[in-house]
Amino acid sequence: MTGPQLRALAAGHARAEAAAAARLMAAVRTAVWADAQVFAAAIENAVGGRDDDPADWLMGWEDAQ
After folding, report:
1. Cα-Cα end-to-end distance for the chain
2. Which of 11, 35, 42, 52 has the fewest Cβ atoms nearer than 10 Å?
């Protein structure tokens, strides 16, 4: 192989490696996001579920006192 062919081959490998790394990082981010959502749901369930209205939460807290 000539020098230009070797450089083209190396560049192709570098692009493939960068694409594989990008796919891997996307998969890792997706997994971490999913884990964070599961963790957040577990916390919400542990404290009585999600409550979007702070006034409702406050009334529930006062009732528990």
Report:
1. 81
2. 52
Whether residue 59 has pLDDT greater than 90: no
Structural contact between residues 38 and 46, judged by C-beta atoms closer than 8 angstroms: no
Please give the pLDDT value at position 62: 55
Q: Give the chain's length.
A: 65
Decide: 50 and 44 in contact? Cβ < 8 Å: yes
pTM: 0.52
Domain ranges of the chain: 3-64
Cα–Cα distance, 29 to 48 (Å, whole number): 28
